[in-house]
Amino acid sequence: MKKRREFLEGLGLGPAALAVMAGMTPGSVRAETLAPAPEVKPRHRIRFGVCGISHDHIHGMIAAIRRGGGELVSAWGGEPDKLAAFRARYPDVKMAATQEEVIGDSTLRLVLSSQVANERAAIGVKVMKTGKDFLADKPGMTTLADLDLVWKTISETGQIYGILYSERLEVPAAVHAGALIRAGAVGKVIQTINIAPHQIVQKGGDAGGAGARPDWFWDNRRYGGILCDIGSHQVDQFLYYTGSTEAQVVAAQVSNIRHGQHPRFEDFGDMTLRGDAGLGYVRLDWFTPDGLGTWGDGRLFVLGTDGYIELRKYANITVSAQGNNLFLVDGKGARFIDCSRGPLPFGAQFVADVAERTHTAQDQAQALLAAELAIRAQMQAARVVLKDS
Q1: What pLDDT, on the 0 to 100 scale, is given for residue 29?
Q2: DSSP one-letter code for 257
Q3: Cys bridge to 56: 68, 72, 206, 312, which one at CB 3.0-4.6 A?
Q4: What residues does 189 pair with on adjacent strands?
Q5: Residue 317: C-alpha distances to residues 141, 186, 292, 359 (Å)
Q6: Closest CA to 366 of 95, 169, 99
Q7: Does residue 55 belong to any structural domain of this protein?
């Protein structure tokens, strides 16, 4: 009993949750709250810059690195509207006139970028060649040629090319799901199912649609296509939760159903994946209705041999607008865990990786394998045309 309690405490469950679980019987349903993450002081301090602010994900990236001990020193951006908002948000940060001004700053240890997706790899390669590490918004690149160049530069320089797959790394419920899975809560993971709807026009926030979407958003040559772009989040989760180190795309398809005025846009896509340690299915779309109240009703299902997990990441429709809802069913019953106050360790881990030359926050091979699979899915996807109703 003592070992079981120590195990549960290690997962961050508070005393009330432990007391409830002690009396669980098969078929019972229990609600728990993940204990607040303890405040941890960063072990390292580094200076970092930003080179490219095309997508508003950059703000979440900056916040993560700042939490981990990073000091934002300088930034460059090419879009006047984004620049104005950036200056207002970070008034003490030096705004560079060129990309080279940031990339060439020898006092920086790390550069972040959410530049237009098909330009990120080139920036990252330049950054690594100056002896700095790089953290890209997803997708980290859009072509296999870019991927090969990134791997070549990593080999030559020994630098890190990180990709912030925020739907796993910056969602407390997704972080806690990983801890539960590693602890054997559902046995061996067999399959992940990701349902990832998105909203084009949003009501604020940093998910990217608070204002009018830019021209590059509608051009799959620039954003990479729906499977390469937002699908890279889901492929990352498939690899991480199944533990697969090798995988292939079994089938993929895309369609432009309701945005014919933008012929290079794709508003629906799905893919089936087969890994050496598990299977995966991903569905993506741009059809989130306004009535949801947030940018997407993202769901993750993890099937194991001894149970399963469901995440309702951003809302629990008709129940609560709060996200970070984790449901676990095993041989003893069903549990709901509110993970909204759970830890987000990525920022501190990534800063430590930069300082200590480790790969704790993100496995380099896994990050780039996720990018590769998303690109391959996009390349082999069938183009589907549906009849009008």
Answers
A1: 76
A2: S
A3: 206
A4: 304
A5: 34, 25, 7, 37
A6: 169
A7: yes
Helices vs strands, H then E, count in the chain? 13, 16
Q: What are the tens digits of pLDDT across the range 256-281?
A: 999 999 999 999 999 999 999 999 99
The domain boundary, picked from 346, 364, 380, lies at: 346
Sequence-ordered list of residues with C-beta below 8 angstroms from that of 327, at least 6 positions apart, any chain: 309, 310, 311, 312, 334, 335, 336, 337
Residue 276 identity (one-letter amino acid): D
User: Which residue in this structure is represented by tokens 């054997």?
Assistant: 184
Residue with tokens 């409830």: 20
Residue 339 has which token pair? 């993970």
Instruction: Look at residues 103, 73, 112, 70 and name the one whose alpha carbon lies nearest to residue 90.
Output: 73
- How many folded domains does the chain comprise? 2
Report d(CA 351, CA 360) in Å as an integer: 10
Q: Between the CA of residue 11 and those of 40, 180, 181, 329, 331, what are the distances in Å?
A: 16, 7, 11, 16, 19
Strands 70-76, 161-164: parallel, antiparallel or unpaired by DSSP?
A: unpaired
CATH of the domain at 334: 3.30.360.10
**Containing domain of residue 263, as a range?**
2-36+168-346
Residue 53 amino acid letter: I
Q: Is the pTM of this model over 0.85?
A: yes
